[in-house]
Amino acid sequence: MYYFIVNPNSRSGKGALIWKGLEGILNERNVEYKTFFTEYRGHAVLLSESITSYAAPETPVTLIAVGGDGTIQEVLSGVRDLSYITFGYIPTGSGNDFCRGMKLPAEPGEALDLILSGCRPHPMDVPVLTCGTGSSHFAISCGIGFDAGVCHEVSVTPMKKILNRIGLGKLVYLFVALKQLLFLKPSPMTLVMDDDNVQQFSKVYFTAVMNQKYEGGGFKFCPNASPSDGYLDVIVVDSLSKPKVLCCLPTAFFGKHTIFHGIHIFRCKKIDIHSDLALPVHKDGESAGILKEFSVSIGAAQVRMIS
Asked: Where is the DAGKc domain (predicted)?
């Protein structure tokens, strides 16, 4: 039995249309499945929690997220015990950083074929973000500052829906990024990694904690990150001029930004981030609020990922 949690509003409403095509394939192949549609932000967490509530070694669950990168973190956040599920993903969003990092098919039909192929799943780390509002999982990255500010503004601007309809959705990230960079005020930050490695910075534009190599629609911020090595990769952009940040960002598409002075990369299993200023925070591109501090750690259990 396959359990599909579908975000019909992904890709500006095209998610529902894409799912109809996939459903036809499932019915044609006589696949046993159940479908659950999200109706509002956070709904996938509740659906996932309900579906997996009985999961155990003798009754494992195969759970498939159908949506964008944000749908993945909601579905995983609802799972009570990740060791009892097999997880699959069908992309119907616009970012697809998860597919890049996991080397999954970006075309929904091909992704469904992979899930139904019976291939052996691989272990994937699922980090835990903890802040004042509680704890939740993510699959790709979380961050504070510039990158989170872009995610936060993109999520509320009507421009994204308009540009997505004409196939130019990624342009909104460029426009918003330029605006955020223009008005962003860097903040002093302190990072405490694995309880004993303390790093202090005076003018941080952003800090991203990565489980995958990519975030933000293809920026290869942590070129050596692996989603199955049991470590978090952390990038800090500190004490650069705004023109230099602007020059640095395009090189990040190729993972060459690490040559710039002011780019710092770390590896750890746990990190506490403290910012002097309250700044936007994101997890897998979804706003996690405006915060001064939060923690990230590698979860105790890995999930079996169909890849």
From this structure: 1-133
Do 173 and 157 touch, CB atoms closer than 8 A? Answer: no
Q: With beta carbons less than 8 A apart as the criterion, state whether 215 and 97 touch.
A: yes
Q: Are 302 and 124 in contact (CB under 8 A)?
A: yes
How far apart are the C-alpha atoms of 51 and 57, rounded to whole Å? Answer: 15
Q: How far apart are CA 82 and CA 29, in angstroms?
A: 28
pLDDT, tens only, 70-118: 999 999 999 989 999 999 999 998 778 999 999 999 999 999 999 999 8
pTM to 2 decimals? 0.91
Residue 20: CA count within 13 A, CB half-sphere: 4
Closest listed residue to residue 34, CA positions, set 15, 47, 16, 17 = 47
pLDDT in tens, 11-57: 777 899 999 999 999 999 999 999 999 999 999 999 999 999 988 88
| Pick from 169, 98, 163, 150: nearest CA to 286 | 150
Q: Do the beta carbons of residue 153 and residue 183 sit within 8 Å?
A: no
Domains within the chain, CATH numbers bracketed: 2-119 (3.40.50.10330), 130-300 (2.60.200.40)
Q: What is the DSSP string of 94-136?
A: S--HHHHHHT--SSHHHHHHHHHTTPPPEEE--EEEEETTEEE
The first and second tokens of residue 254, run together, are 């190729």
Under a CB-based contact definition with an 8 Å cutoff, are residues 204 and 185 in contact? Answer: no
**Other beta carbons less than 10 A from residue 47's beta carbon:** 21
> Residue 98: which of 66, 129, 128, 130 has the closest Cα?
66
- 153 in Cβ contact with 285 (< 8 Å): no
